[in-house]
Amino acid sequence: MLDNYIAEVLVSPEELKETIQKLGEKLTVEYQDKNPLVICILKGAIFFMTDLVRAMNCDLEVDFMDVSSYGDAFESSGQVRILKDLDQSVKDRHILIVEDIIDTGRTLAYIVELLKHRQAASVKIVTLLDKPERRVMAIEADYVGVEVPNKFVVGYGLDYKQGLRNLPYIGVLKPEMYE
Ligand code: IMP
Ligand code: MG
């Protein structure tokens, strides 16, 4: 049973639904008539992105990018490598980056710079979760779903060693799972 891995539930399925609905309403206003290119950062953000775009009532396109930031299971290193690049050009497009969680900010700092270098018309970030205590780079999301404490969280796309992404809520992993 997946629930046995979890110490506490931080965001329930109902809260996820409400949070995403509210974000979708704000983004509908922001991107009306801009036909944004919505970029999902694989793999963690897939679950959030598919629900979010269905809460956005405007024209948009989606694309995917997979990056690895070398490091261990718990922390990225800042050396970001592109594993899968975008299919479409970002030049002169309004870009909305969809991320599952901002932790140190290293991954997004790299991606934002890259997209600006490729001459996007605008680059904004929406993240489901934000762990501001852990930030080492000056990166803030334009839209944040839920702020979370400095604990390792899993579910709704977020993984521990590639597992637990399919939990329907955000939970704190039991420390004995990795101690
Ligand atoms: P950053 O570059 O340190 O901001 O790391 C962001 C990435 O690290 C996220 O896209 C997640 O894949 C991963 N990550 C950071 N914190 C957590 C967590 O608490 N649980 C699962 N993955 C996390
Ligand atoms: Mg990730």
Write structural notes for this entry.
With 179 residues, the protein is an alpha/beta fold. It has a 6-stranded mixed sheet with strand order 4-3-2-5-6-7, sandwiched between helices. A hairpin with a 4-residue loop joins strand 3 and strand 4. The protein is globular. The chain starts with 5 loop residues before the first strand and ends in a 6-residue tail after the last strand. The structure holds inosinic acid and magnesium ion. The site of magnesium ion has 3 residues, from loops. Inosinic acid binds next to strand 5, helix 3 and strand 8.
Number of strands: 9
Radius of gyration: 16 Å
Mean pLDDT: 95
Helical percentage: 10-25%
Main beta-sheet strand count, sense and barrel state: 6 strands, mixed
Counting helices, strands and paired strands, the structural category is alpha/beta
Keywords:
3-stranded antiparallel sheet; 9 strands; globular; binds inosinic acid; binds magnesium ion
